[in-house]
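Researcher: Here's a chain I'd like modeled. Treat it as a single chain, no partners, no ligands.
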Amino acid sequence: MAGKGQHVVPRDGKWAVRKGGAERVTRRYDTQREAIDAARDIARRQGTEVYVHGRDGRIRERNSYGKGPFPPKG
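Model: Modeled as a single isolated chain. Structure tokens:
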């Protein structure tokens, strides 16, 4: 799994937030939007990234809330 940020993943018909590399989820939510908002809050506090996975489990969106280089490389 990419990165040590917060991952929004499908779990048992709901959506969950999970820290990168962890097996257990931080919390489950009824909607993906709620999970994304929660993951974004955590990532902002920790200065990490949010990875949003689709229902198929593949990363479909990535947002950084850290102190990356400016301007970004590439």
